[in-house]
Amino acid sequence: MECFSLDLPDQPETLEQILVDCRDTLKYGVRTGHPRFLNQLSSGLDVVGVAGEWLTSTANTNMFTYEVSPVFVLMEECLLKKMQSILGWSDDVGDGIFCPGGTISNLYSILVARYHFYPEVKTRGMGVLPQLALFTSEQSHYSVKKSAAVLGMGSENVFMVKCDESGKMIPAELESSIVTAKEKALVPFYVNATAGTTVYGAFDPLNAIADICQRYTLWMHVDVSVELFNFKYLFSRACSVTWNPHKMMGVPLQCSAILVKKRGLLQECNDFGAEYLFQTDKNYDVSYDTGDKSIQCGRHVDVFKLWLMWKAKGSEGFGSQVNKCLENAEYLYDQLQRRTDFELVLKNKPEHSNVCFWYIPPSLRGQPPGPDRDARLHQVAPRIKGRMMEKGSVMIGYQPLGDKVNFFRCVFSNPATQQEDIDFLLDEITRLGDI
């Protein structure tokens, strides 16, 4: 970084230097709003969302009490009710709270599920409980294991359920894992299903999983990486849902919500009634003091930018935005099928906005399948990704999965991405791969 110092001075810099530092920060940073940033689901740049973030920062208030954040608290309640109705939950059930990211939302789901079955854990600790078992697919987000570790249940007690070739959890394997856990004297209590897995974008069979959860009296959570406008009412049987508007809805980071079907459970699980914040004799309905539903005290206002974008787009606008991303995924899939220098990881059409593929350089195109070819192909994606980062022309992720060597994972969430950007991506991979 030329003439850009990260060192912090003892004396204040001039305003001119501060402006230069702001420009340099953007200059050297990654432009996640660019239509050729295809590295993560949280991409794009929505001007209404940015305006909402600016107003939120200007207000600079906290979400813990109605008295300091009345409008934002009411907005959160309105948004949560709208989101619950899209899930197919009735108005008289359901609760939720906005969280700092999907990992924390998933952690909340395990926290409230444990409290639902064993409320004594709140005061007496894990020592009075049996050894609990959790279940999630082998292609689910890593936050489930991390949450089990944070909550004292242990990552080894998370059963990673086998998936089929398309990345969906196999219901029979889930039931087999539950039986195995019981044979080991563990107590099953929680199942995490995924709607749009991180790598393949696969949807677990939610109804079959719900049947198993009902049969064994287990809490069913759904970790949703899609946006629900195009998939309404698939989630009505879930006990809790993670919904991340900062993904395909394009809301500026961060914006995530945990939605819980049982009203009051979040409050019961987390409240401690600090008298300096949550007095019961205030001159308004203290149920609007939502801070005791949270494990945080200070909580950033994440709702206004989403509320403002919903006003600007409407539900139909968000649905169209998601459709555009799905169309881009299908276009990329079609282009890859037509080319001989690329190979699809999954032969079926993408279920979501994820498309996974290998680039086959000229030196490997005539080589038969086998360990030697796999070892060399494994090095292709990292090398091309490194050249991409040095050149700054486009950005896409890669990873191995199971017995599959490193492949590219293109995930669409930016509605500004056009077909010509997809064509550029494939041509650029070819150019950089042939160096």
Automatic annotation (TrEMBL):
Residue positions where N6-(pyridoxal phosphate)lysine is found in the record: 247
Alphabetized Pfam families for the sequence: Pyridoxal_deC (PF00282)
Entry keyword Cell inner membrane: no
GO molecular function, one term: pyridoxal phosphate binding
Gene Ontology biological process terms from the UniProt entry: gamma-aminobutyric acid biosynthetic process
Cofactor(s) listed in the protein's UniProt record: pyridoxal 5'-phosphate
GO CC, alphabetical: cytoplasm; presynaptic active zone
Lyase as UniProt keyword: yes
CDD domains reported in the protein's UniProt record: DOPA_deC_like
Similarity comment: family membership: Belongs to the group II decarboxylase family.
Subunit note: Homodimer.
The protein's name in its UniProt record: Glutamate decarboxylase 3
